[in-house]
Amino acid sequence: MHLPGERPVGRRLLLPVSRDLLSGTATAPASPRQGAGACAVPIAPWRSGWGRRHYAATGAALPLAWWAYAQAAAPVTGPWWVASIALLATAAAIVVATYLPRSDGLPKPPAAPCAASPLAQLVLAGVFLSLGGVLGHVVALLAVGAAVLQRTTGASTCSVGPGLGEVRTDR
């Protein structure tokens, strides 16, 4: 019998853990509920936990992101340039809204320096847009796309994996 959050793998059992950054020691969660927040729980419009406040934050951030990216890429002319700015602004607004607490009661992932990476990617996208040209737009789209994937799929710049984010219990 396994508790929620535990994953049987072969003859060993993997538990989610958090790591003390200064000492490097792994600490197992005190409860399965705490373990759910030890690793980033992805949130996105197509996943549970996305509530009305997330839609409201996306709606509020969208015109600001549009204005910022349009200013960086000025002049925005032609339908393809407008479409790329619209796509960038929408993706950036979704990324910003993922930082709000979940609406399904699960704990918010702990704050870590690596959680700032998607926000830095949004800023870098504006820098790439200001360089101008098609290449600047393509690189900006890639940077914002990577930020969306990091925040909505659970992929992270934080180190999590065997030996880094799990405790072996077969020893």
Low-confidence stretches: 11-24, 26-38, 160-169
Q: Report the order of strands and helices.
A: EEEEHHHHHE
Q: Summarize model confidence as the mean pLDDT.
A: 74
Per DSSP, the total helix count is: 5
Q: Strand order, main sheet: write it out.
A: 1-2-5
Instruction: Write down the overall geometry.
Output: globular
Helix/sheet category: mainly alpha
Using DSSP, what is the number of strands? Answer: 5
Helix content: 40-55%
Largest β sheet strand count, sense and barrel closure = 3 strands, antiparallel
Alpha-carbon distance between the two ends: 18 Å
- Whole-angstrom Rg: 19 Å
What is the percentage of strand-forming residues?
Answer: 5-15%
Structural account:
The strands form 2 sheets. The chain has a 3-stranded antiparallel β-sheet with strand order 1-2-5, with no helix packed on it. Strands 3-4 form a two-stranded antiparallel sheet. A hairpin with a 6-residue loop joins strand 3 and strand 4. Helix 2 (52-72) crosses helix 3 (79-97), helix 3 (79-97) runs antiparallel to helix 4 and helix 3 runs parallel beside helix 5 (133-153). It has 5 helices and 5 strands. It has 171 residues and is mainly α.
